[in-house]
Amino acid sequence: MSLVLTRIDNRLIHGQVLEAWVPHIGADCIVVANDEVARVSFQKTLMAAAVPKGIKVLIDSVENVARAFHSHALDASKVLLLFASSGDAVKAHRCGVDFKELNLGNMHGGEGKVRYSCTIALDPADVLNFQQLEADGVRIVCQCVPPDRERSWKHLLHSVEG
């Protein structure tokens, strides 16, 4: 398996992912690892229906996705791995999903979140999760769409903190 992009995007499968990222990275398989979405079959069906024919889709819990990665079921695929949150990313990494880089795309605001860019809002748990991933050797970058310049997530923290 070739893991061509690992991304946090609250919206998971949507137009930006399908129209910008999939052709840019040449993915032929989209994997969504999120426990909540895995429990809602209607939401899984809607997301899978949006994906063009010829692109495989796996939408499952974080643990089941980790099992699929370890089973070599996706070995012949170029995989775009999507998480909805930093917690999903940490959980997957702890389950043995080996990714070296994590792209932050869309992380919406909410209670306790601080907006760091037009698409990224973080709370203290997100910051802690990213620090843990970095300590494990994961490079974390912010890049909403392929033409955007990559920036370290820490650059965002410093730009708000001054």
From TrEMBL:
Pfam families: PTSIIB_sorb. Residues 1-162 form the PTS EIIB type-4 domain. It is found in: Cytoplasm. It comes from the Bacteria. InterPro entries: PTS_IIB_sorbose-sp, PTS_IIB_sorbose-sp_sf. The keyword Cytoplasm applies. Keywords: Cytoplasm, Kinase, Phosphotransferase system, Sugar transport, Transferase, Transport. Its main location: cytoplasm. PROSITE patterns: PTS_EIIB_TYPE_4 (PS51101). This is PTS fructose transporter subunit IIB.
